Fold:
Amino acid sequence: MRIFCTILFLLILHLSSWSQKSITTSAPCTDSMAQNTKGRWVPNYDLATAVSKSQKLEAYNRVDILHNILVKMFPVPVGVDVRVNRSAGNTYYGASRKYYFTKDSVLTFDYLNKLPIISFSYFANFSPHYCAHTNKGIVFTPGSKNENSDGIGILVNNLTGLANPPTGEDWTINGQPVAMMSSMITEKWKGYEMYGDVRLNGRSILIHRPGMLPYIPVTRKQYLERCINQTTRLYDKTIEWERNMPVRSLEEQEAEKKAKLAKFEKDFGKDPKRLKSAVDYYISGYKTDQQIRDERVTSAIRLKEQELKKFTDELEKTSREGLLDSPAVIRVMYDSNLIFDTDPKTGSMLITENPDYIRKDLSVHIPQLIIFKWKWSPDFYPAHKQIEKIFLQDFPIEKIQAMIDK
Structure:
């Protein structure tokens, strides 16, 4: 145990020396100096959980293909330190779910028809250099405290990040949870459609075996039927709540009314004109609790009818146009004002995982689908501009595609 603790201490000390190292400048540090100073590749740290040593080794041997490509492309990174992490864990791709609420009304689920598979990832964070003030004056610090989401990475055997079930949503189709994909943009890169948020300059591409998608698009018909069911359920609960709103007895309300009128008499009795104005205003707006309750119920019923009509009208229109089986692309779940979003830059496709995609004859660590992602901030960090240019021009994406089923 003492030997293990000593080794662990030395490892922590070694990693700390990498992450905390700074270079004192002979003159005041400038952004130009920081962005043009040679950086380093920082040693990996491992986030593997609940996988065997051999499974982790097999997984990391594959993600290291990307690592070796990047080291070859950027052997001595300029203006950045490159921090690398790898992870591996168990997941169940295409497993169906049974949702339920706990006794505390928290939505949760149980997996059914589980097919275990190893999901693993690699991310190289291109952390920009920057200048900082310390008690020693102005120093150059190589990115040690400037980690962000900028860089290049892959996620294997998992759609997380590219598609996620909306929070609090229990919608399933054939037991598969419905998820929203990232906005699909019209651009292509080396033949691949790119997904992502163009405002954040982040991109992702989905790499899979040819001729079969790892997901199944939700149809417009399925989505509209869900909208109708959800709207009905939501407003029915509201209507029921309004109908069950506690009300006071008519005798209690009449007593309150008389007390209010008596107070007007007391306050304004010497001014008949003001008294009449106060009484008339109060009487004109007076409603019993029962009247208020009935009006709120009527309003909720009217709103339910208005909202449902939007979805039923769209269902009829979609049917006439022969688009019932086309993919549902939306911006916001259950939005009755913009039901489908035809702009590929802002719309998100609804999908479920395809349980038939995963091959059962392959070992659990074999890559069957890969999300390849990257993100740069060239407007904030000039060093990223040159890195992005080299990456987009020279990266051999075919080597990542070749990992599928191997």
Notes: The chain has nine helices and 20 strands. The mean pLDDT is 88.
